[in-house]
Amino acid sequence: MRPLPQVVIIGRPNVGKSTIFNRLVGKRIALVDDQPGVTRDRRYGDVSLLGLDFQVVDTAGWEDEEPDTLPGRMRAQTEMSLKGADVALFVIDSRAGLTPLDEEIARWLRGQNVPVLLLANKAEGRSGDDGIMEAYALGFGDPIPFSAEHGLGTVDLFEALRPHIEGEELDEDEFEEPAEGGEGEEEEEHDSSAPLSLAIVGRPNAGKSTLINRLLGEDRLLTGPEAGITRDSISVDWQWTDPATGEPREIKLVDTAGMRKKAKVQDKLERLSVADARHAIDYAEVVVLLLDATRGLEVQDLKIANLVLEEGRALIVAVNKWDIAEGPSALFNGIRTALDEGLAQLKGVPLVAVSAITGKGLDQMLSAAFEVREAWSRRVSTAALNRWFEQAVDANPPPAPGGKRIKLRYITQSSTRPPRFVIFGTRLTELPTSYERYLLNGIRRELGFGAVPVRLTLKSPKNPFGN
């Protein structure tokens, strides 16, 4: 199956590129705010526009700064995005009219071997008419009046894009005859070969983007010494070769914004970034909490870890910058002890030492991620589950508060990802929390669930005379 044609959105800051991206994708994916420079990394989205299918790329605002500055590195990311693109969508602000920076971007685009469509955004009403007329001077033909906020101009954009996207015949292999007999309609078990959704989270400047760049082998994400560079949660599809088996494994890597203490988050944009990171955790299968070896484990790290576990995601803790850690053995043991104490509800969370600079430990981290996903997705048959349950109850019967027995009748697994179990019995409201922990620890230890969050629900029959 051939890849979708790629349309890259380019323009100076605050002309509405991310709003256009959201409009085309049909979802509020990219962060949008009135202040310029919100977007810093490339974001990809699939679009089906009036039957026209393509991939759109949101980029950082083009700024005229030195290459070693943050805006300069953002511009380099934008320049890289044009490699392999089918069309460049050059966006201007029709209300503001042409600026010297628009003209500079136009000169650069004329030197690239990519077709350019000029999109005059914010063209609702008559306030943008003058800017649209000025846009002819850029030499890219008729500008397309557009309003990302109101969706005006979509048909004109479709007509302009169509010649560049419908240039090739469709591959016959893209279409398959539907299978007869209605097979595959039943609910399927988890497919271990399916792509792993892996989110990287942590405090600002822990090295999350650098780690992903190291895995990809390219400068895909913007990095630097400044804290809080990443704002959007950026996902990248990638293939990793398992060194143990030599087999390729599909992974969806998700980079997230750094998560500081709630009291320190005052800026509106940072609040949006943290909310986006929490959203990425909700939709991940496995979450890697990245620590900074030069700072060790802090209270904020434990809060992030607890957030991941509360959402029912599988968790791995990776200690980054291991190549410059002092006293690595004592540091590792100290973090291991602090994790077991701070995450009392789930001891034994996988802990690996990594270096985003040298690549140390990254294969070990990814192997652990696939292993914990397997445990997170495990389903135990009711028969095997109840054999274990009977042995556990016989070995340690529940207490009898007030001389009345608590009867535990049977257990069943209601769902996976995360694993959820339901215990049926009588007088379960009086079952001590310590006994619930005993059962949860037994499930993890003896049924192969390891250090993944497990949910346990107690259900007693309703008393018809209770009222």
UniProtKB/TrEMBL annotation:
| Region (Disordered) residue spans | 167-194
Question: Which PROSITE patterns does this one have?
Answer: G_ENGA (PS51712)
Keyword Iron tagged: no
CDD domains according to UniProt: EngA1 (cd01894), EngA2 (cd01895)
Q: Which InterPro entries would you find in this protein's record?
A: G_ENGA (IPR031166), GTP-bd (IPR006073), GTPase_Der (IPR016484), KH_dom-like (IPR032859), KH_dom-like_a/b (IPR015946), P-loop_NTPase (IPR027417), Small_GTP-bd (IPR005225)
Gene3D superfamilies found in the cross-reference section: 3.30.300.20, P-loop containing nucleotide triphosphate hydrolases
A Gene Ontology annotation in the biological process aspect, one of them, is: ribosome biogenesis
Q: Cite the binding residues for GTP 2.
A: 202-209, 255-259, 320-323
User: Which UniProt key words apply to this protein?
Assistant: GTP-binding, Nucleotide-binding, Repeat, Ribosome biogenesis
UniProt xrefs under NCBIfam families: GTPase_EngA (TIGR03594), small_GTP (TIGR00231)
Report the protein's function: GTPase that plays an essential role in the late steps of ribosome biogenesis.
Family to which the UniProt record says this protein belongs: Belongs to the TRAFAC class TrmE-Era-EngA-EngB-Septin-like GTPase superfamily. EngA (Der) GTPase family.
Q: What is this protein called?
A: GTPase Der
* The organism of origin for this protein: Croceibacterium soli
